[in-house]
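Good morning,

Attaching, inline, the backbone tokens for the sequence recovery test we're adding to the shared suite. The designed sequence is right after.
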């Protein structure tokens, strides 16, 4: 069945008419015709600035988009999420990553039970554990202090913590943190081959504790550790983060060495929970709290500010404008910061696993486009690679530029180069160069972009940035009428792999992979 409720709504149709009325105009013309646009098309809050002046949008576009959010009942949906209602309808779960960073003890109830006390109790355990490891009170089996932490997890149990630990590296002390996600043992082996097992702590992070890649890596790491220090050493060198205590114990990690998470935290929204233990071990509990405070600040902004001045709401709505009305099928994410190098990868999961769906909440097929392809790279690195395509390729692809205003950790000369390049790229993409001596040197321009500026890349602003995109994803899911919190599309491949692995002729036999696939598909 087709769902065209959104496409038939008044706001959507008004936006379509509005889009037609802009057909004759160029981005250059729209931007330059509007003198105070730079200041007006900007939302600033506590050291984070979102400037959307370089979008193919007028004040009328902004008003119509805000109306669309109203018609799609964003306010009501937002209230339901914060109140702990089971808005993840296919999995019948609440969605409460916001409770993990809530300031104060106001109760947040799921089916009448307040979740705040267990969040606080787990945070206290994480804090104690991190301090004990960092201060050398919790030692390895041979009495040596822990110097290396290896986080074994994948998807949401890897990408957020991996991003945070790199982004906040200057705040890290005492332990060095490593991440292993891939089922290819090369990743794990190339890390542990350089480590002393007596100084190494493994965090096995898996919400379900059934994820194949994570268990493969955890088992291999366990064999390595036991072969070096003996089986009894496991208890001092393995810690788990999971919902699933039964599977954790089956693996051989005692409940005392397990940190809980809950079914109301989605994997890709979980870095604020014990899934972020590697972050706390790296930067310490105080900086971890500052990261939570930054996110809580963004939560307050998202909850209280009118749509047209609301940072995540406008980021989301302009994304919908680009996707559904201007026809862009991708979004380039371009952080001008080495420390944010993993941000595009992180956003790929956050946006594409959340909103890469075409069946609506009520089970109909959407008649409009949903999540675009997210890709990206550190600004100046990407400039020497795919920016050619951004400037002169056949597709018009919008970009999110992410910059850091002050960076005392960078060499001033390098920092200035980053700033200049970022501004130059945004301007060149938007305005192009309409005339040139040879046609190949013409730049069409007309490529819109957002500019997101963090005063500093510290735990607080980092927390704000991540929460900004989380709420963007939520807002888009509400408008598109899809459930952003399940991921049914990843299951089929998992099931097929499991069944292929158990067939007699294993796919590790040379040259039989395609044969296996065809046999599987044809059911023979
Ligand atoms: O396969 C997708 C997925 O379920 C993600 O949603 C999740 O973040 C990842 O796998 C890891 O899951 P887990 O934390 O249960 O190991």
């Amino acid at each position: 069945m087709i769902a065209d409720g959104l496409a038939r709504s008044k706001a959507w149709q008004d936006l379509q008419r509005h889009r037609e009325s802009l057909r004759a105009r160029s981005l250059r013309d729209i931007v330059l015709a509007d003198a105070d646009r730079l200041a007006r098309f900007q939302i600033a809050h506590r050291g984070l600035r979102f400037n959307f002046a370089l979008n193919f949008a007028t004040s009328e576009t902004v008003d119509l988009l805000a109306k669309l959010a109203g018609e799609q009942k964003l306010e009501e949906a937002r209230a339901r999420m914060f109140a702990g209602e089971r808005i993840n309808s296919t999995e019948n779960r609440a969605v409460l990553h916001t409770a993990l960073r809530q300031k104060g003890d106001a109760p947040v109830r799921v089916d009448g039970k307040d979740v705040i006390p267990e969040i606080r109790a787990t945070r206290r355990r994480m804090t104690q554990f991190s301090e004990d490891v960092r201060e050398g009170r919790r030692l390895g089996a041979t009495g040596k202090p822990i110097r290396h932490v290896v986080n074994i997890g994948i998807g949401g149990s890897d990408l957020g913590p991996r991003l945070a630990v790199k982004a906040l590296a200057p705040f890290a002390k005492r332990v060095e943190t490593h991440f292993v996600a891939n089922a290819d043992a090369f990743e794990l082996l190339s890390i542990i081959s350089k480590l002393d097992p007596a100084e190494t702590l493994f965090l096995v992070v898996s919400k379900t504790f059934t994820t194949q890649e994570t268990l493969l890596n955890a088992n291999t790491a366990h064999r390595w550790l036991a072969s070096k220090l003996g089986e009894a050493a496991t208890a001092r060198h393995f810690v788990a983060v999971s919902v699933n205590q039964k599977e954790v114990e089956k693996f051989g990690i005692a409940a005392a060495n397990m940190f809980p998470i809950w079914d109301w935290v989605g994997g890709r929204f979980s870095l604020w929970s014990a899934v972020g233990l590697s972050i706390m071990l790296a930067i310490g509990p105080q900086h971890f709290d500052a990261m939570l405070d930054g996110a809580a600040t963004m939560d307050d902004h998202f909850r209280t500010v009118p749509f047209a001045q609301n940072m995540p709401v406008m980021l989301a709505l302009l994304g919908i404008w680009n996707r559904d009305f201007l026809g862009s099928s991708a979004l380039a994410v371009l952080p001008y910061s080495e420390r944010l190098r993993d941000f595009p990868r992180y956003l790929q999961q956050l946006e594409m696993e959340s909103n890469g769906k075409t069946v609506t909440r009520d089970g109909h097929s959407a008649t409009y486009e949903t999540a675009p392809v997210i890709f990206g790279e550190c600004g100046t690195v990407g400039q020497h690679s795919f920016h050619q395509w951004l400037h002169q390729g056949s597709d018009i692809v919008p970009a999110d530029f992410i910059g850091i205003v002050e960076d005392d950790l960078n060499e001033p000369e390098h920092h200035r180069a980053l700033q200049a390049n970022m501004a130059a790229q945004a301007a060149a993409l938007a305005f192009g160069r309409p005339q040139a001596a040879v046609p190949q040197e013409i730049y069409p321009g007309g490529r819109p972009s957002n500019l997101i500026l963090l005063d500093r890349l510290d735990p607080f602003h980092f927390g704000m940035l991540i929460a900004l995109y989380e709420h963007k994803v939520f807002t888009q899911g509400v408008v598109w009428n899809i459930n952003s919190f399940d991921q049914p599309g990843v299951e089929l491949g998992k099931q097929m792999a499991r069944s292929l692995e158990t067939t007699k002729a294993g796919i590790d036999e040379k040259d039989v992979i395609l044969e296996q696939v065809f046999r599987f598909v044809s059911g023979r």
